[in-house]
Amino acid sequence: MSGPLLEGKTAVITGAAQGIGYSIAQRFIAEGARVVLGDINPEQVAKAAEALGGPEVAVGVAGDVTSSDDVQTLVRTAVDTFGSLDVMVNNAGITRDATMRKMTEEMFDQVINVHLKGTWNGTRLAATIMREQGSGAIVNMSSLSGKIGLAGQTNYSAAKAGIVGLSKAAAKELAHVGIRVNAIQPGLIRTAMTEAMPQKVWDQKMVEIPMGRAGEVDEIAKVALFLASDLSSYMTGTVMEVTGGRFM
């Protein structure tokens, strides 16, 4: 395979104003893609799109992934602006950590809605467009928390486990129309959120990682690129752990 891996492709990435989503957008653009960034923060997503190169390669759209209308606007922007929708990355997420004793019903619902319903909205609406094209790649962001369950994250663990099931079911529904659906399960990745952890908690997690370090956001972006490109052309319904060997 020669040339940029995503040359001529258009990708939509949710939760893309910062962190992992922004890094995925950077990596995709470097490989020839045009991107539509989705984020709930209008100012941040506009700044992110400008920083990535502006309207010729990156467009920012403010919206809430729990709203099907907002996600529909996001995917239609890709087609209306760049002519196609070839890759959908459902990355948007939040945390509302607490033990079950302290977690409110609202905290549970918020996390389930953003992660699980948001991923369902993105997968469903992107697939509607990709089906007409006869091709497409959908990448859904799960988490190691969805594999092992983490104390204080009954909402997050449930949502991230649900994304695995959703991705596998969607992969079976969509394979015959040329659409692949895969998921990524990151482990401890160095972001502003994880670096705000108490040192004791950070140190405890580091002990669990055979490679002895946290991952970097670009290490998730490179796996997203693999799943978005033809390098993974015979893969669908898979879950790729990017954890440094944690909880093998």
From TrEMBL:
Q: Which GO terms describe its molecular function?
A: oxidoreductase activity, acting on the CH-OH group of donors, NAD or NADP as acceptor
Q: Could you confirm whether the keyword Protein transport appears in this record? A: no
Q: Name one Pfam family in it.
A: adh_short_C2
Q: Which UniProt keywords apply?
A: Oxidoreductase
Gene Ontology BP term (one): fatty acid elongation
Q: Which family does it belong to?
A: Belongs to the short-chain dehydrogenases/reductases (SDR) family.
Q: What is this protein called?
A: 3-oxoacyl-[acyl-carrier-protein] reductase
